């Protein structure tokens, strides 16, 4: 189905990995700790935005002053994720595509998560051996919807952007792929990849 592309690039959360419950629990714990309202539709719309960026958007939207630094709030969520990821993450059906092209085409993961976290989650899901590179938000100056993440993936893979296909579950991610000059596949629509949210 994707034979005419030279490389495959996957988003991680919600695309290659079902981490819906992990991040809903982590965000619920974080927002409750810092007394930030939980607006679930808004949170879904921010899929792919790194933690600090999401917190900044929430604080501005609700006009809040929180007695904690952005770093502290980010660290709390990241620690919750690291302490509980083994309980919630699992591969999605898209892993079958990655397995099919393993050894045939170079593949990378481009994610809004931090690189170390992403590598750990991929390892827990038994997917780490399928991809040559993982590009997290800490590796680029501008995260999604900027094209930097996917352009970095293409650079590391040694493939021209226009010969890459990106698999994404979020509008911001698909926007990033388009801005990078890459084909984008909406995995919710094309592959019916659905995350297991607890609400």
Short description:
It holds the Pfam family Hydrolase. 45% of the residues lie in helices and 12% in strands.
Structure characterization notes:
The chain has 199 residues and is α/β, with parallel strands linked by helices. It has two domains: 7-19 and 90-190, Rossmann fold, CATH 3.40.50; 21-87, DNA polymerase, domain 1, CATH 1.10.150. Helices cover 45% and strands 12% of the residues. It has nine helices and seven strands. The strands form two sheets. The protein has a five-stranded parallel β-sheet with strand order 5-4-1-6-7, sandwiched between helices. Strand 6 (164-168), helix 8 and strand 7 form a beta-alpha-beta unit. Helix 1 packs antiparallel against helix 4 and helix 3 crosses helix 4. The chain is globular and about 50 Å long. The mean pLDDT is 94.
What CATH calls the topology of the largest domain is Rossmann fold
What would you say the CATH architecture of the largest domain is?
3-Layer(aba) Sandwich
Please summarize the sheet with the most strands.
Answer: 5 strands, parallel
Low-confidence stretches: none
The tally of strands reads 7
* Intertermini distance: 33 Å
Percent helix, as a range, is 40-55%
What does the radius of gyration come to? 16 Å
Number of H- or I-type helical stretches:
9
Beta content = 5-15%
Main sheet: which strands, in order across? 5-4-1-6-7
Domain count: 2
CATH class of the largest domain: Alpha Beta
**Overall pLDDT level:** 94
Name of the CATH homologous superfamily of the largest domain: HAD superfamily/HAD-like
Tell the overall outline.
Answer: globular
